[in-house]
Amino acid sequence: DWLEHGATRAALLATVICGALFLRRVLVYSRPVVDVRAFADRNFATGCVLSFVFGIGVYVPVYVLPLFLSQVRGYNALQIGTTMTVLGAFQFLSAPLAAGLTRVIDLRMMLALGLSLFGVGLWMNSFMNAEAAFGELFWPQAVRGLALMLCFLPINTLALATLPPERLANASGLYNLTRNLGGAIGIAGVNTIFECRYDLHVARMGESMRVELMPPELDIGLLADIAGREGAVMAYNDLFLILALAFALVVALMPLIR
């Protein structure tokens, strides 16, 4: 209900008007500060879409998983950090493999493999329960860590390879911007989705409980806590499943890349 507030409506209107004026300016000026005409290149435009989704995949899981470990499992900072090291370790170990693959296979095939593996890793995370610990979270993180470098190297090359040299500096800035925007928008989006899915799951569990039929010695407060915990677990699983579906969809864009 943001737009019910007058100041927010005014800010949105100003943003739209200024955005349109900015776009007109950079399209007619010979040396614009931001050359959006780079998006006319199909490889670059497709690469930016892939980079945006890749940014979501890079930033969002390392934001969501510590929340799960803290809120559901009750882990402290050291325990969360220890659990999360798996992703970084496998990313480090896969770097030489990714570098070698760039010399022997089509970069589009390598990128499709990386995006697919990353989606599989996210999908594996969508089966968590309230007891999920290091062992259950090891392989999903390992798969994502392996896939990270398989995505990172070919996306960069394919997105910028077909642009003329004089446009590379500007296009590189735009390209990196899309990845960071993916992370920022993705984190904001998953917070909103989590709240909606959490409320839905808790409400459904509440509907299935007949309080009047429960024995009087039952602790209703404890039951509510358990319902809240399980609702959070299901909401986190929904987030990982949505992320996995996003990666499945961008794999379909591979035929657009030259």
Can you describe this structure?
This protein is mainly alpha-helical and 258 residues long. It is built from 8 helices and no strands. The mean pLDDT is 89.
Write the layout of secondary structure elements.
Layout lengths: L5 H23 L13 H18 L1 H11 L5 H25 L5 H18 L9 H27 L7 H40 L12 H32 L7
Report the β-strand fraction as a percent range.
under 5%
Give the % helix: over 70%
Helix and strand composition category = mainly alpha
Mean pLDDT: 89
Shape: flat
Largest sheet: none
Cα Rg: 22 Å
For the secondary structure, the number of strands is 0
Poorly predicted regions: none
Strand/helix succession: HHHHHHHH
Number of helices: 8
Distance between the termini: 43 Å
Features:
single chain, 258 residues, mainly alpha, 0% strand
In short:
With 258 residues, the chain is mostly helical. It has eight helices and no strands.
